[in-house]
Specification:
This protein has helices spanning 56-72, 77-93, 101-113, 121-132, 145-157, and strands at residues 10-14, 21-26, 31-39, 42-50. By secondary structure, it is of the alpha+beta class.
């Protein structure tokens, strides 16, 4: 059965044999295979290939291999691409490697605060040090909502003004 493209938007057809494998057909008749699975509790979609060049049998094989890489080996292609893009952007912008929040603040100072003559930056940085001291040695990617909640709770305990805006 030939699948006709929708008049507008996208049509998603799920493969009943291979769990998570979908065929996505756009209104411009672009057809792609993708694998939809949960990774670390988040629903993710990974491209398997172009459906015009890839039959369903090959798409199922690739989806199975990709599922093994993602679930059993912990490989996350989306996270890998994001990290490569982030590294390329940092290299292009001249930013130093960001290993902790201190270096993030240093980069902001060097790239934005000084060139734009932000006069309030020294006071803002001091306020950040005073309120977020325990978090400054952590990598920015390791910060969680719980970390920020703990800082806010500590501020409320010592009577610091908290803005709800």
């Amino acid at each position: 059965m030939a699948i006709k493209p929708p008049a507008e938007g996208r049509l998603v057809v799920r493969d009943p044999t291979c769990r998570g494998l979908t065929l996505r057909v756009t209104s411009t008749d672009v057809r792609t295979w993708s694998l939809e699975i949960k990774v670390h509790g988040r629903q993710r979609r990974f491209s398997v290939g172009n459906a015009k060049a890839l039959g369903i049998g090959e798409a199922r094989k690739r989806a199975s291999v990709l599922r093994l890489k993602v679930i059993e080996e912990g490989h996350d292609p989306v996270a890998s691409r994001r990290e490569k893009r982030r590294d390329a952007t940092a290299k292009h912008s001249g930013a130093a490697a960001i290993s902790d929040v201190h270096s993030l603040l240093d980069s902001f100072e060097r790239l934005k605060a000084k060139p734009n003559a932000i006069r309030s930056w020294p006071e803002q940085r001091q306020m950040i040090r005073a309120n977020f001291g325990p978090l400054l040695d952590k990598a920015p990617t390791d910060l969680t909502r719980a970390d920020f909640r703990a800082v806010l709770d500590a501020g409320l305990t010592r009577g610091a003004p908290i803005s709800g805006k």
